[in-house]
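From the pipeline queue, job 12 of 40. The input is one protein chain; the requested action is below.

Action: predict structure.
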Amino acid sequence: MKRNARFAAVAAGVAALATVAGCSSGGSSGTSSSAGGGGSAAALTGDCAKYQDYAGHSGKTVTMFGSILSPESDSLNSSWADFSKCTGITIQYTGSNTFESDLPVKVNGGNAPNLAIIPQPGLLAQMVATGAVKDPPAGTVKNEDNWNAAWKGYGSVDGKFYAAPMSANMKSLVWYSPKYFKDNGFTVPTTWADMMSLSDQMAGKMTGAAKPWCGGIGSGTASGWPATDWLEEVVLGKYGGQVYDDWISHKVKFSDPQIQDAMKVITDWLQNPKWVNGGVGDVKTIATTTFQNAGLPILKNECGMLQQASFYEAQWPKGTKVGPDGDVFAFKLPAVDPSIKTPVEGGGEFVTAFSDDPAVQAVQNYLSSPQWAESRIKVAPGWVSANEKVDQSLYTDPIDQLSAKYLADPSATFRFDASDAMPAAVGAGAEWTGMVDWFGSGKSSADVAKAIDAAWPS
């Protein structure tokens, strides 16, 4: 994850959607709401009729906490606007750039939100261990049939399901400028060797501050997470799924040969002073550049490529055309070892409840439905759902289409973000710190690995 720290674009903010029950029929009585187990619900009419299952809680406010900030949170709020208008439930969303550290404090202090958008299965397990996480309602459990079984596993702890997936994102992308490539005769690489050769070719032609690659791992208290993604991409793309899984469980340690070798690949790639940090400075500036700003030099032809996830689309300035013939686009990051079949790293978010109030459960059920996912798709370019019932034709954004292509590929070697699946003390703690030390202070990969391994819970 991160995806929350990742999606953070500006300082933390609060967005509340005031709602009215203007679509409900004031006079008729309805049946008990199937969504949250509430009392009698007035019948909803017209365009609001489709929200009948969630009715019966008008006037209630449901608090939600996450790390998604503006501009990402703007579309999040828009996605449930009609739901709120029709049901009368106000969803009050608060975003924080320090979500990963704030949530445990809130929960342990008895000030938990009604719902939290958690991007790390490791953090989910930590919250379940507090005893504060509530079981999902029947409607959410039923909706889970709309996902690949693996996603239910990521939302479960010790085999028990707690949190439904909210989104999916494609990590294995490289952003670039199609126009810059065309003007300079560069071809999108399809193998790792081709990508390294292209980097050398670019370095030979670029002048001044321009470099083949740019990057930034700054993200508030979550600084370092982009570099964990880089390491995950290399481990999966060079050693495949079994080593990757064993790494998550610590059967393979950070200090073991496979991970040290993967770190060497990154040293030659994104710590290569001839190749980074385009438009910004030397290698160490990667540690101080925010991930939100990392790709902006591409728009100035000062950076050739940025390895970053599909959700980075939300960070391009307003008016930036994204597409094969646009200002920016992306290609699939090639496998380091071509024998690894289509390695794809993905991430996602999971809606976790700290309250079993009927209004909260109504929101929980709605957010796990294809109905909500389709609403979000319509207002959020760069956002992809893992819900298999979603109408795929709704993806009109080229990055969404590219992401969905690989995320839905049954032959791909797909794995969830490793650091998000590791214990929170490691994946959302020691590894983030270690990556900052590695890039920013020049700490050796052996010393970084030793510190991360030492943080693993016994």
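Job complete. The mean pLDDT is 90.
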